[in-house]
Amino acid sequence: MAAGLLAGGPPALAAGAPEPATTLAADTYTWRNARIDGGGFVPGIVFNRSEKDLAYARTDIGGAYRWQEPTKSWTPLLDSVGWDHWGHTGVVSLASDSADPDRVYAAVGTYTNDWDPTNGAVLRSTDRGASWKKADLPFKLGGNMPGRGMGERLAVDPNRNSVLYLGAPSGNGLWRSTDAGANWSKVTSFPNPGNYAQDPSDTSGYASDNQGVVWVTFDESTGGAGTATKTVYVGVADKENAVYRSTDAGATWQRIAGQPTGHLAHKGVLDAENGYLYLAYSDTGGPYDGGKGRLYRYATATGAWTDISPVAEADTYYGFSGLTVDRQNPGTVMATAYSSWWPDTQIFRSTDSGGTWTQAWSYTSYPNRENRYTMDVSSSPWLTWGANPSPPEQTPKLGWMTEALEIDPFDSDRMMYGTGATVYGTENLTNWDDDTSFTITPMVRGLEETAVNDLISPPSGAPLISALGDVGGFRHTDLTKVPPMMFTQPNFTSTTSLDFAETDPDTVVRAGNLDSGPHIAFSTDNGAHWFAGTDPSGVSGGGTVAAAADGSRFVWSPQGAGVHHTTGFGTSWSASSGIPAGAVVESDRVDPKTFYGFKSGKFYVSTDGGATFTASAATGLPAGDSVRFKALPGAKGDIWLAGGASDGPYGLWHSTDSGATFTKLPNVDEADTVGFGKAAPGASYQTLFTSAEIDGVRGVFRSTDRGATWTRVNDDAHQWGWTGAAITGDPRVYGRVYVATNGRGVVYGDPSDTGGGTDPEEPEEPGPSGVCEVTYKVTNQWTDGFQADVRLTNTGSAAWNGWSLNWSFANGQKISQLWNGSPTQSGGAVTVRNTDWNGTVAAGSSVAFGFTATRSAANSAPTVFQLGGRTCAVR
């Protein structure tokens, strides 16, 4: 599996001291996610041990998040990762500093093989992930590699927090920083860099990589404040030598005697109060595989090892990985059978340090199950997958790939765990011990982790229909709400391509991947309901698909077979001639018999409904196949083509003669996507959008004059790594753009001067009653700009349902980007309204937002803040 609702995100990633953005956005946009809530693998959840409600989650390709307790939601922390370092959206480990809760660290990098062109890094923050500095490493890290659910590989010494350790993959051993993550060096005394690889014969380097050093755990009882912790435990991907210990603050290391062999230690969690190190073992590295496993307890004082597994090894068909201790009651331990895919994952709980166990569900008489829990997925109803399984399988499932499991260290009733699709949790966990039911719900709002393959925004019906990896795709009738279900009938594992009939938007087609079943489906009600088509012989994957302008016919270029065409809804297909297999296909948006294709530098045209194609004489197009093109609605033969590579033609091309000739735009250095949206007021030509490099700056750009000039609409705080799969404007809302990301879901932007779009749930002028308090703090400042954080507290006795905070700048400061709120500014007067997810503020609670802004020499702080006509206290 791959893998927030936001009105912004953190400021830009910095290599050293904070710097102003390379190029400020020429138009200030408000950015949000089209809500899906989850959708990918969450391999790690980390609670801070000294501050209540401070928690983080890491994803394998979609960045890191911080928990927002007032809204019970997550806020993204790595949206500032840019195109050239897209791999840093993969987070292999997180560490939250309990000695200084403002400090948090992330070890980033997506692949250790050549799929990721850059080395890994350790990011460090002194403001809980609002801003970052980076320490580059001389090796790669693998946030999306096998073994990514083991850990945590990154750890802060709880007694001397300037000391950190990082377990490295690929034989690179154990690394240490003694200056709070700024510099790193190899611990040369550590004896074992690991030797386990999932598949040593894999020539791609993906499954054959040595999974390395996989976790670090400190015994906080062996040190004092300011003194390095003496005893440190380290887990290694080596089935015969899995656990090492240092008793001299990392100077020397020894393999712990008497340890079990034959398995990998996925986790090592210490209960220092009772002197037990708990270990979860599996026969493989996960996160998908694992057929056998054990749980062990190591007595740190005596060196005794005890097998505390809840079931006999012969009865396991899974490994153990998720592992946590209740810090309020350290004798309470929980673990997961992470690789029990069928009928469900299993969670085990012990209240006597592993002496005896109970489990989340058990058989009464097979195949009937009795669950200790109930599941309420009404906030994310698609988690049922629209399934109706036979017992013992149930829907929704308790989970799969459950390698992250944490009991809140301040609240024995709260537990969170990650799955391959979401974060689940409960707030009445101790009901388990009373043999009464506890409730599991998604705790994932704000965490968006889908990889997006294609996007369409029809002129009528749903404003957005998406093609996604792993969860297929969704039809959004309201961008601020989670759709009730992904595409079903059939339910593709990944949807690879979407199209609709331009003059009949109720006709929609999608193509995708499915292990067993059809690879194409059709809808006649704008994607609300679907029915499967029939595959031509040999089809192995979705490829690309195009619908005729009037919906009368379709052209499909699937994997495993050549290009085909059909009339009607794909009950039979005929091979197309004159076009190579694997070509990207699109339709003319006016002439229902005209289709286009592209493959290996050649553009192809069909004027007979896709039966025959002819190669265009156009030259100078990209030689490779990293190309995306679209025909403009309402203008026959008007085509825009984006793509290329750095070693050849790369950019944006335009044709007005059905591809007979193309003109390369001289002002676009590189371009990877192209899309169209509603024309600007007073303009006759539709707005163009592209993910591109223009004037040396990578970003998302808009043109309202056919590409003659371009405006950057994102900024360095909102880059989302790689955005090269798809982009489209909205034909009904000027300026709105939908951007495909590879792990941060569908983000959409609206010009801030339009009030952030026309979503129906946005309050026009919220005005809560009651008194308020504001804290305004400048957190970073540079020559012509600054960053500030604002905290607004409800000091009244009633909850707010929507808020709108006003102030005035005295020195010409102008907001360039704001997150966790929706801003407008006229002169010095600023208004910040709530987003759709943080409008409810309980009495005594707070809501926070931040922004970057330009400034002149002076930068005096506002002194008067008003909320709903009332003046707030300033702190």
UniProtKB/TrEMBL annotation:
Alphabetized CDD domains for the sequence: Sialidase_non-viral
Pfam short name (any one): CBM_2
UniProt superkingdom: Bacteria
Statement: the UniProt record of this protein carries the keyword Hydrolase: yes
Keywords: Carbohydrate metabolism, Cellulose degradation, Glycosidase, Hydrolase, Polysaccharide degradation, Signal
GO annotation (BP), single: xyloglucan metabolic process
Family: Belongs to the glycosyl hydrolase 74 family.
Lineage: Bacteria, Bacillati, Actinomycetota, Actinomycetes, Kitasatosporales
Designated name of the protein: Xyloglucanase
The keyword Signal is annotated on this UniProt entry: yes
InterPro entries: CBD2, CBM2/CBM3_carb-bd_dom_sf, CBM2_carb-bd_dom_sf, CBM2_CS, WD40/YVTN_repeat-like_dom_sf, Xyloglucanase_GH74
Annotated CBM2 domain residues: 765-875
GO molecular function, one term: polysaccharide binding
Stretches for region Disordered: 747-770
